[in-house]
Amino acid sequence: MSTRVVIVMGSQRDWDVMKETGAELDRLGVDWTAHVSSAHRSLDRTLALVRDAEAGGTRVFVCGAGMAAHLAGVVAGATVRPVLGVPLPGGLSDGLDALLSTVQMPGGVPVATVAVGKAGAKNAAVLAAQILAVADEPLAAKLRAGKVAQAEAVGAADAELFGPRRSS
Ligand code: RP5
Questions:
Q1: Ligand 1 binding pocket includes 37 (Cβ within 6 Å)
Q2: Given the CA of residue 12, which atom of ligand 1 is nearest to it?
Q3: What total number of domains does the chain contain?
Q4: Is residue 159 part of a domain?
Q5: C-alpha dist (Å) from residue 49 to 30, 65, 76, 79, 147
Q6: Does any domain span residue 131?
Q7: Top mutation candidate among 8, 12, 14, 101 for ligand 1, by most atoms within 8 Å of CB
Q8: Is residue 162 part of a domain?
Q9: Closest CA to 90 of 101, 74, 106, 105
Q10: Nearest CA to ligand 1 atom 7
Q11: Could you tell me the CATH number of the domain that includes residue 83?
Q12: Position 163 in a domain
C-alpha cells in the first residue's frame, strides 16, 4: 500500500525547497512519502519507483527538480496519475531553466507546473489535495476552511496596517 501522494526530487539538495510540499500536506492531513531519484542519474530506479507507487495506489506525483529538470516529464511518461512539477531555483536565472524544462511538455504528456521554488512546492501540495478532494469531502472541507482563513488573514493585515475599514 503506497501513500496517496509521492514526492520525488532529483537531488538531496532539493529537499530544502520540497519539504514545503510535505509540510503543507501534513497541515492538510494528506499522507505522503518522499524519495530522491534522478531522471538522469538513476532512470531505472525512478521508473520502478513510479510504477510500484502507482500499483500500490498512489494518486498524485509531485516532482521537484532544478537545472535541466526532466524528472517530472519522465515520471509523466511512466504513469497515468496526475504529475505536478515544481521547478527549483539555483540554475540559470535562478530557476528559469528548470521552469522551461518542466513546463514545456509535448502534447499528450502533461505536467501541471507550479511556480519556481517554495511557493510552487507549497502550491503543489494544495493542488494535490484539491485533486484528491474531488472524491474526499472531509479534505474538500479543510481546503474550504483554508480559503476562509487566507481571506481573514488578508483582512487582518489590512486592519493592522491601515486601521478598521470605514464605509463611505
Ligand atoms: C537536478 O539537478 C536536481 O534536481 C538538482 O536540482 C540539480 C542539481 O543536482 P545536484 O548536482 O546538486 O545533485 O537533477
A1: no
A2: 13
A3: 1
A4: no
A5: 20, 16, 13, 11, 34
A6: yes
A7: 14
A8: no
A9: 101
A10: 66
A11: 3.40.50.1970
A12: no
